[in-house]
Amino acid sequence: MRRYGDVLVADAVGSPLMYILAMGIGLGSLLTGNQTLFDGVPYLVFIAPALLVSSAVQGATTESTFPVMDGFKWHRIYQGPLVTPISPQQIAQGQMLAILIRLLIQGSLFMVIVALFGAVHLPAGLIAIPIAALAGMAMGLPIMAYSATIKEEKGQFSIIMRFVFMPLFLFSGTFYPLTNLPIFLQWIGWISPIWHGTELSRWAMYGHQVGGWQALIHLAVLVALIAVGFVLTRRHFVARLGGTK
Questions:
Q1: β-bridge partners, 41
Q2: Which of 1, 67, 88, 186 has most Cβ atoms within 10 angstroms of its Cβ?
Q3: What is the number of alpha carbons within 13 Å of residue 54 lying toward its C-beta?
């Protein structure tokens, strides 16, 4: 990741900043001028947790596609550790850990930006950083497991970004409450790590009402996706890199 670290930082800071300026402050000023509140708070405060989670999910999705393919096929960077005592399972876990570290750093940078705009209650809002990382891993690990099975890249990753990530981003209560959608579209949010992470992050950042059982369901969905992705990723790395040590 050091090779494109400047791009990572620019993306981690630039993308949420543009959304905050365009949506939170631009559109938000119009809504606030009309005395419109979302979930009892100004629009900027409402969308900030969703942007935090969406940014983490997008980052995890990106790191779980082309970089994984690169490790297996193009630069074959996974082959180097195989001549050491490191096992394929450990290589997979190292890739997961690298993504998690990126998400935590990215979330911290985002929180600094949001705090400068006064859109988070500190210090309780800091809990949203690991929540966003959890949501990112819930999306990233199943995708990583799939990426580990691809031997020829023929546009699969573009399809994931356009037809998986983008619909989840748009229909997960990011810019408006999920209940504003027709019931036949709300199911997209119910299965989306973005929505589950956003609900928990809104609770942490401004006190959004989330019942105890609802919080458990949100966490259970995220943990279940991570567990499935973790197991499948390790299995597929072993299949591609040749057994265990």
A1: 38
A2: 88
A3: 23
User: Quick one: which H or E segment has residue 66?
Assistant: helix 66-69
Task: With cut-offs at 50, 70 and 90, classify the pLDDT of residue 32.
Answer: low
CB 120 within 8 A of CB 48: yes
For the chain, first and last CA: distance in Å? 27
Enumerate the domain spans of the chain.
Answer: 2-241
pTM of the model: 0.91
d(CA 132, CA 243): 33
Q: For 61-116, what is each residue's pLDDT tens digit?
A: 999 999 999 999 999 999 999 989 999 999 999 999 999 999 999 999 999 988 98
Q: Which long-range contacts (CB under 8 A, 24 or more apart) does 211-220 make?
A: 219/134
Over residues 184-196, the pLDDT tens digits come to 999 999 999 999 9
In angstroms, the CA 42 to CA 40 distance is 7
